[in-house]
Amino acid sequence: MITQNHLSIDLDEDATSVGAAVVDEDRPVALREDAADIVDEDVNPLDKLPDHAIQNDDGSVTLALAFPKTLLSRRDGKVRERKFEELTFHRLTGADQRAIASATEAMQSVVAFAQSTRLNQAVMNALFDKMDAADIADGGRVLNHFLTSGSKGRNRQR
What we know:
The structure is a single chain. The protein is an alpha+beta fold. It has helices at residues 94-102, 108-117, 121-130, 133-148; strands spanning 2-3, 6-7, 53-55, 61-75, 78-89. Helix content is 28%, strand content 22%. The strands form two sheets. Strands 3-4-5 form a three-stranded antiparallel beta sheet. α1 (94-102) runs antiparallel to α2. It is globular. Residues 152-158 have low confidence and may be disordered.
């Protein structure tokens, strides 16, 4: 029996109740000893943006790469060096979804990155192949965030 701040234990109870956690539901959640044991089933950690991602005013998300990469590319006959320290992801459109769906299963992730970052597919192919798996996973979390967070820019785009 629990009364105010006191706990009474009946030693005559069966053994299954001994050692069971007691939750004081009258205390605010943040102050309860069992607060660390509360599992928020409404939030999938993979739906949340990585801590180092920045939500931009236009709804896009800038993700700093933990392992920046440099590519050499040729455009109009000129070779240039491009250093990728961050990627900016944009919400996907229906056209983006069609492009992703029409790619082979092995290429769908790369196409999704290219469509969302608005990088040339050839550039993303080369960059994705060089990217660290941790940066790829974080980029995937950004894409997943867009798919699970609803339309944040709906009112602004009307």
